[in-house]
Amino acid sequence: MCLAVPGQVVELVDEANHLARVDVAGVLRTVNIGLLDGAGPGDWVLIHVGFALSKVDEEEALATLGLLRRMGEAFEQELEDLKASAIQ
Amino acid sequence: MKFVDEFRDADLGQALAAEIVATVEPGRHYKLMEVCGGHTHTIYKYGVDDLLPENVELVHGPGCPVCVIPMGRVDDGIAVAHEDGVIFTVFGDMMRVPGSRGTLLEAKAEGADVRMVYSPLDALRIARENPEREVVFFAVGFETTAPSTALTLMRAKAEGIRNFTCFCNHVTIVPPLRALLESPDLRLDGFIGPGHVSTVVGARPFEFIPADYDKPIVISGFEPLDLLQSVHMILRQLAEGRCEVENQYKRVVPYDGNTQALRVLEEVFELRPHFEWRGLGFISHSGLKLSGAYADYDAELRFTVPGIRVADPKACQCGEVLKGVIRPWECKVFGTACTPERPIGTCMVSSEGACAAYYNFGRFAREREVV
Ligand code: SF4
Predict the structure, then answer these.
(1) Domains in chain B: ranges and CATH
(2) Residues on chain B touching A50 (C-beta within 8 angstroms)
(3) ipTM of the predicted structure?
(4) How confident is the model at residue A65 (pLDDT cuts 50, 70, 90)?
(5) Chain B window 63-82: which residues touch A at a Cβ cutoff of 8 Å?
(6) Measuring CA to CA, how many Å separate B80 from each of B67, B73, B97, B126, B135?
(7) How is the beta sheet containing B217-219 ordered, strand by strand?
């Protein structure tokens, strides 16, 4: 739960509840973007427990993803947890 | 030096390591604390400390949210989980944290309905899907995680969901740092500041460290190069006789933090007068509880929470590890009675815990001798 993982916003699905579909390392999941000033398709965000914490640029996002991939088990566990998530 | 070739830019890593060597005074011992468990993880994984001169020592701080939850709060959580009709939702890491009479995982095996969730919003969904049940969310984490709980509670309130409550164990980052700085058994020269918590709180709350304690702090990113650079920035401040808050992680952390997240924290939570930390004891104004406006969502008001207080097990030295007084492998039960499979202390549970990070990366076998 301690990780913040980068993902790319694909589309907004429920604007009233600040929900967006985000691609996280190939996993598509719904994430809450209500802590950001605004984010749209194409934006990279850092996601922690189902919420986007901050926007980052693409270079930062890809570098962080690389770092997480090399972390191995902790990142795989995070992705498994994320797959089990069904935020509405 | 065997890990530097795995860095994003190995040459830069070597160059920074050389600059660090050039910055330190040979006869002086430097003790720097990395506050955040994510940093601990990177340091062991990449052997960042192997790139530092002998006289620069990194010690681990109290920034792993799972590690600081005291046994009594786990016992309280288990008591609520066993109440009739309750679905008790927790983050995966918390399932294995030992209380005085076992873990939530064991409570589940005994028949309590304990469910792992990825997000507090998953817990809220479970409440929506089970209107006849009481769904409790075991909230843990620093300011990184607390805004997510806050927004979830705001949503629950807006939807009028009545069967959802939060057992709040959120903590704040500044009070334990102040407690460490006040503690007589620890002499630190500077801090590697936490990256993710600072995306929310910003760099500003750490200004008391240079102002009141004359120590530098550099907010750092999570890559091995970030950490080397942050160490270099701290050492340069010390060499130049400066001490201030510097932000190495500017590309993600704004100096003022995430104002939207700070606003929701303000609305949903208030500070508790005291909160108990594993190994650190009670620290004033260090924990959050739900504000009056959210009292209906407070599990501590809806259920009888026993308020159990238990001393940490005798064998456990997590407190000393969390304060950076000893290194993980110096704990008497490290790797023998206490392993990630059967943790005695919390620092062995989460992959961000200092003991687990040590253990998982086999660092204990090749660590230099301690003097
Ligand atoms: S080895 Fe276990 S008991 Fe000892 S400090 Fe680490 S987690 Fe705590």
Answers:
(1) 71-172+257-302 (3.40.50.11740)
(2) 118-122, 148
(3) 0.90
(4) confident
(5) 64-66
(6) 21, 11, 16, 17, 10
(7) B56-63, B30-36, B190-193, B217-219, B245-247
Encoding tokens for residue A51?
């919420």
CA–CA distance, B371 with B260 (Å, rounded to integer): 47
- Kindly list the structural domains of chain A, giving each domain's residue range(s) and its CATH number in brackets, ordered by start: 5-84 (2.30.30.140)
Please tell me the pTM assigned to this model.
Answer: 0.89
Residue A81's closest CA among A27, A35, A43? Answer: A27
Span B23-49, pLDDT tens digits:
999 899 999 999 988 888 888 888 888
pLDDT at B307 over 90: no
Contacts of residue B118, Cβ cutoff 8 Å, sequence gap at least 6 = A49, A50, A81, A82, A84, A85, B91, B92
The pLDDT assigned to B367 comes to 45
Atom of ligand 1 nearest to the CA of B343: 2
Would the CB of B58 count as within 6 Å of ligand 1? Answer: no
Is B147 an 8 Å CB contact of chain A?
yes
Residue pLDDT, tens place only, A36-51: 988 999 999 999 999 9
**Token reading at B260:** 């939207």
Residue B168 bridge partners (DSSP): B139
Residue type, B236: R
Residues 6+ apart with CB under 8 A from B339: B348, B359
